[in-house]
Amino acid sequence: MTIELPAPPHPTTPLPPPPHVAIAGGGLAGLAAAAALADRGLRITLLESRPRLGGRASSFVDPATGEKVDNCQHVSMRCCTNLADFCRRVGIDGLFRTEPAVTFLGPAGKVSRLAAGILPAPLHLAGSFLRARYLGPVEKLRVGYGLARLALDRGDEAGRGESFAGWLLRHGQTPRTMDLFWSTVLVSALNERLDRMDVGHARKVFVDGFLATKHGFEMELPLVPLGELYGSRLEDWLSVHGVDVRLTTGVKEVEVDDEGALRGMRLRSGELVAADFVVVAVPFDRVRSLLPESAAERIEGLDRIGQMESSPITGVHLWFDRAVCPFDHVVLPGRLVQWVFNHTAIQGRPAAGPDGGQYLQIVISASYDLLGKGRDEIREAVLADLAEVWPVVKDARLIRSWVVTEHGATFAVRPGVEAIRPPQRTAVDGLFLAGDWTDTGWPATMEGAVRSGYAAAQGILADLQRPERLIRRELEPDRFARWLLGEGPARRSAIPPARVPW
């Protein structure tokens, strides 16, 4: 027997498809945009030309062992509120180790530790700084004066086109204080030399990272390789949350119609990925090649991106047959080797040999002087530098090594760079830019990359009439720091700009 069902009283209207967001670039900026928009009823496609996610924060596979090796050590700081939010959002926040102190090994082999004391910010680091054994009393006075001037000036001189090296010389610093203190902190943080560095970015590092809050300077070290942290784990999370992740998929061009309306992205394969919104989250030197002339000419300031420059960074990976470094991580002021990270201690990754050996990652930021050198020459220079610090290096057997130089590791924080950083929203409806090089208020950092991705996602939600604040506020300055570093000409003039008397 057949039962005939009655027709529904009202014809059903098919629901329109959800808005489609296409993201070009699987670095932290693109990942942050995708993660922020996931689970919101949108269709999201993430396109990455390489076979892995993570962008510059990634790993490669050592063919000799099959293990993942990071391109270069990446660390965060507790002042990086948006990166921390992103890690919580995607469930990887438990894969970091907080370091409450930074160890310095001075030129004479004397150990100093930078750690917060009992005083409130911005004086919390004063005790450990005064105990630093690689600076003399007069040098500490000079540095203290420079820090006070930098903090209380509120970056008023940052827009004058002056390099930070010039600023330091005008404020009583010597080549020795610049080499052992200012360069030690800033070259690693900003991946640029003092003579090519913007004053405002230097101030950002010291005020937000070290002075405004008691724990903002504390490092967060990843406990797993970057390729797992921002690669495989992110790919799994995004897939579970409905994001279509397409690796080894190159984008040829953003496509617009004859009237200039956004259509989507044309792939190198010829396929058109139609989209209502497009986020271009690629390095600054690739953006212009992805935009058709009809779109590029409508984006104000896009031509200025061509004025941006890159800074290199070199990572040297060394596997020894025995332990040579007694620290989990250590800063070496005034040397070729700037940072040493003991991955045997941090990540439990031995090298080889009877006692398991030791695996060290060496970081040399702003490595302009190494660009013309071969890998063997760089490795030997690093080994010689380490042997001066730890003579046991001469007796240890080097099992294997890798030298990785990223020529375009970060955008260069040159004086005046803020004037050429574009916003995330463009004049083309539905088209957004993302990347640490866009206008984020932060230097070339993972925090800046995530902030840019969140800003693009925030703009998309606003266009969909679903406004939501995604960008997390920076750490609130401690009460005393807020009073001492607060705005106002009276506070800014608290220290006169007279010549330093010593």
Helix and strand topology:
Layout (H helix, E strand, L loop, with lengths): L19 E5 L3 H10 L5 E5 L11 E3 L6 E3 L5 E2 L3 H9 L6 E4 L1 E5 L5 E5 L10 H5 L6 H17 L10 H7 L4 H16 L8 H13 L7 E4 L3 H15 L2 E4 L4 E6 L5 E6 L4 E3 L2 E4 L3 H7 L2 H4 L13 E11 L8 E3 L7 E4 H4 L11 E8 L9 H15 L2 H4 L2 E14 L19 E3 L12 H18 L15 H6 L4 H4 L10
Parallel strand pairs: 1-2, 1-14, 2-10, 14-20
Antiparallel strand pairs: 3-4, 5-9, 6-9, 7-8, 11-12, 12-13, 15-18, 15-19, 16-17, 17-18
Helix pairs in contact: 1-14, 2-14, 4-6
What can you tell me about this protein's structure?
The protein is an alpha+beta fold. Helix content is 31%, strand content 20%. The chain is built from 16 helices and 20 strands. Helix 1 (28-37) packs parallel to helix 14 (446-463), helix 2 packs across helix 14 (446-463) and helix 4 (137-153) packs across helix 6. The model is unreliable at 487-502 (pLDDT under 50). Its cofactor is FAD. InterPro entries: Amino_oxidase, FAD/NAD-bd_sf, Flavin_amine_oxidase, SQase_HpnE, Zeta_carotene_desat/Oxidored. Residues 28-461 form the Amine oxidase domain. It is an enzyme of class 1 (oxidoreductase).
CATH superfamily of the largest domain: FAD/NAD(P)-binding domain
Task: For the record, give the distance between the C-alpha atoms at the N and C termini, rounded to a whole number.
Answer: 106 Å
Spans of at least 5 consecutive residues whose pLDDT stays below 50 are: 487-502
Overall, the morphology is globular
Query: In CATH terms, what is the architecture of the largest domain?
Result: 3-Layer(bba) Sandwich
